[in-house]
Amino acid sequence: MPTVALFAIVSVALILGGSQLKTILSSMMDGITNHLSWLYLGIYIINLVFFMYIALSHFGNIKLGSAKDKPQYSTFQWGSMVFATAIDASILMLSMVDPLRYVQHPLFGAKAMSPQNYQNAHMLGQFDWGPMAWMMFASAAVIIAYMMYVKHVRVLKLSDAMPMLQGKQLHKRMLRQVIDFLVVFGIMGGIGSSVGMEIPVLAKIIAQLTGIGDTIWLKLAMFALLFLIFGLTMLKGIKGGIDKLSAAHIWTAIGFLVFVLLVGPTGNILRSEGHSLILLVQRFASMSTGLTTAAGHGIDPVKSETVFYWGWWLTYMPFMGLFIARISKGRTIRQVILGMLGFGALGCMSFYAILGGYSLFLQQSGTVNLIHTLNTQGQAAAIAQVLTTLPLKYVMLVVYAASCFIFLSTTISSSAYIVSTFTSSKLEPNEQPSLFNRLVWMAIFMVFAFGIVFVGGFKTVQAICSVAGFPLIFVSALLIVSTWQLLVKDQSAQVVQVDIMSKPRLSVPTRMIHDSIHN
């Protein structure tokens, strides 16, 4: 209850503060980028190197369960739930407008709006939604799954998965409570920001479709509809609820992408993606370490965008870790890590390849001036303008809006499910959190997101995500250390056991002679 009360207070403060908070949050984002970016970049580098080593070494062969355990879900079902839970409607929106924002800034020394910068802009989003981002989920997913299915430890909260924090000592109990609070704080910041950004865009599209005024009442009606969808999903839980919603999520996304690719400039999009992949390999090290250039400008736009996204992915890390762990029994550590990269990173990169490539083509070819629309009317108007260039534009607007609702429903339903698990004091291993607890957290999500809508501005979303993700940098470091300690300790114990079992067993007379000689 104290956690719920705190977020209720923060939500009310956002609503009352309104646009006055926008300047403060914008300054906070600039301060984080200038002074703390090295922490965000550092933890992602360490995390990527560590878990790629775990996946490709003999540790990757460890099965999350007994030898008889088989995966509960097919590879496609598993991958679709992982992707759909982590990716909400943000990918449908930002993949169209991010490249348009990027191309206006000098990237890697290239001039703004130059042909080279169009290619840089196409590639940058794929880095921020690519392998480094998705590998962050491994820091929580691997250790939780290992503790649950190998060590047979009951894990309801992230702190339960860290052996170094277990015990009745006061400092350990306090540290567990701090970590659990930071986890909930991070999830609220990340998911709340997503909804707060996406609802205004959806409202603009619905207003354009129906002719209804884009007012606060329309946004309230959308929040009510979302709450109804979430409630129906929560009644079912993972089986029959979240899994079916995830499947709809994936097929809707695939259908939309394929349609845009086929009716759009297919050859141009594919060629641009080929060049972007080469650029991504060439620039990967400099972007990962923040050693990019900004052609003399004060704030490096590449680093600024990456810090925002690194904060955002950190907020998703705890709940995605627990969710992935819960559906991964019977798989190996290698399958979990590489599966996240395959379904997650490649899935997100395909959105930026196709939707980002299409919007950049429209701008560069002079078909429509999307950048002018983005700068003067905002993201929603720019996205609507992109959609109206497609054949059957009204059908596509409907499909797009429906897809956004499905994406939002999947992510927030899963988030409320996991947060309610974190905040349940007494829960049996196979028991779901109470429906009341889940509905309370969905309501808190809605109110918090509504507060962000009141403040407004993409810089607000960036600041909230970065601030919410900051303390989780240290939580991620603890998870990495705990994972290494567990795996190495268990491996050492297994080696000792194998050595003992492999020694030749002597008969009693022979052993007596052997002992007498050595004595």
TrEMBL record:
Bilayer topology: Multi-pass membrane protein
Keywords carried by this UniProt record: Cell membrane, Membrane, Transmembrane, Transmembrane helix, Transport
Subcellular location(s) per record: Cell membrane
One Pfam short name: BCCT
Regions that span the bilayer: 37-56, 76-97, 132-150, 178-196, 216-235, 247-270, 307-325, 337-361, 397-423, 435-455, 461-481
Keyword Nucleus: no
Protein name as it appears in the record: BCCT family transporter
Family: Belongs to the BCCT transporter (TC 2.A.15) family.
Protein's organism: Lacticaseibacillus pabuli
